[in-house]
Amino acid sequence: DATVKCWGYNSDGQLGYGDKRVRGDGSNRGYGSNEMGASLPAVDLGLGRTVAPSGPAVCAACPAGSYFNAVGGATCTPCPAGSYSHFLNPAFCSACPAGSYSTAVGASTAATCTPCPAGNYSGSPGLAACAVCPAGSYATAVGASACIPCTNSIPRLVTGHIHTCVILDDTTVKCWGGNSRGELGYGDMSNRGDNINEMGANLTAVDLGTGRTALSVVSCGYHTCALLDDATVK
What we know:
By secondary structure, the protein is an all-beta fold. The chain has one helix at 55-58; strands spanning 66-67, 77-78, 83-84, 94-95, 100-101, 114-115, 120-121, 131-132, 137-138, 148-149, 157-159, 163-167, 173-177, 214-220, 223-228.
């Protein structure tokens, strides 16, 4: 009925009955043994006054995937794209980390944060989309928070023991020289470049796979390796 009753020690009037009587201890103390139940009056809060309903009865917690941005707000706000909240009643949503993105609105789990694909990046937390690496830079791994600038230090022409390989301006690879151990990569052991009509247009590109191109190439002794545009190595 939203009234208040109090009992216990009352040396300073903490029970609110206008006296210092202890109530509910069963000690009688000259005030009668029947002190609880209907014999215990309600505290006088004022004519017609009762206790207001408690917070949980009138205030609802914001569900996961939303937050409240103002005390006393009438509605919860869904977490925007690029963020999430898996707690009840949060004051803010957590941002997806740099290197990831999320297009979901009202996300309730970090699983909606997706790593940026290779060739893309997100440089700050809480983004709804990744950006493509600008010209002159690259990102070979997924989840990049920044792209790597291209530099002239990436090998374009390398030499092994008795062979040479080069990345051309169309990102294909051609090799020539000794090939006793297949180091030229043409599927045979024939030398190239020691006879006429073996260079220029007659020298084919090394087969790196359909649609694959080389980012860098290294040679050592009798073998050659290339880092490809899909971040694999052959």
